[in-house]
Design brief:
One of its GO terms (biological process) is fatty acid beta-oxidation. The chain is an alpha/beta fold. It is 44% helix and 18% strand.
Length: 233
């Protein structure tokens, strides 16, 4: 389950179990609850602060917990609504946010990274990938809104219709991430970027973010139903 640390003015939210390096950090319902609870803790803090998310090992996140989902298809729409709440919350989060993409970010895991203000990616390993087209899965209305608002049009076309695996250099060239770092330097690079922004934690920051991301937030607020293709990987 995710856990939280603090380094100066920066909260570091780990997407993996403490001490584990082999988890792909999928969004089980309990995982989502824990993620929101940790964000509650961050929001309850006072003073300058910023947020970094990161994991350990091969994966940042592989997104939806498909094992749980296929065992609970009667709960699919509510589950996807709950997944959307993570993206919405990060888009409008009242602190600066930086995703430190330590490994593979696939499907909804890539979307989680995309919901941050900024992204730094490991230089030598890991891909950002939206494999839904290859898996025969449509995007939800909310996921489509998030990706088409946060990526440029042609990058969204390429990422969403080809399932291309972007390494760090590809992702930087496409504007998907803002920078790269070695595995050893990734955490410190993300922390330094976040610390620079911690002083921007002011009441107007979430107001600015909600206006910037109004279309994506509106799409993510649309309830998932069978009619709007409410399933993505």
């Amino acid at each position: 389950m995710p856990y939280l640390e603090r380094d100066g003015d920066v909260f570091v939210l780990h997407l993996c179990d403490e001490g584990k390096t082999d988890s792909d950090n999928r969004f089980h319902p309990d995982w989502i609850d824990r993620f929101h609870a940790l964000l509650d803790t961050v929001e309850a803090s006072e003073g300058p602060a910023a947020l970094v998310t990161i994991a350990d090992g091969k994966f940042y996140s592989n997104g939806l917990d498909t094992d749980w989902l296929f065992a609970n298809l009667d709960q699919m729409h509510g589950y996807l609504d709950r997944v959307h709440t993570m993206f919405s919350r990060l888009l409008a989060f009242p602190l600066p946010t930086v995703a430190a993409i330590n490994g593979h970010a696939f499907g909804a895991g890539a979307m989680l990274a995309t919901s941050h203000d900024f992204r730094v990616m490991r230089a030598d390993r890991g891909f950002y990938c939206l494999p839904e087209v290859q898996l025969g899965m449509p995007f939800t209305v909310g996921m489509n809104a998030l990706l088409t608002e946060r990526l440029t049009n042609q990058v969204a076309v390429h990422a969403m219709t080809t399932g291309h695996r972007y390494d760090a250099d590809d992702a930087i060239a496409s504007g998907i991430v803002d920078g790269k770092a070695t595995a050893e330097e990734l955490r410190d690079t993300a922390l330094a970027r976040a610390a620079e922004l911690a002083g921007n934690r002011k009441p107007n920051l979430p107001v600015i973010k909600r206006a910037l991301h109004a279309k994506a937030l509106a799409g993510l607020a649309v309830p998932n139903t069978t009619d709007n293709l409410a399933f993505a990987g």
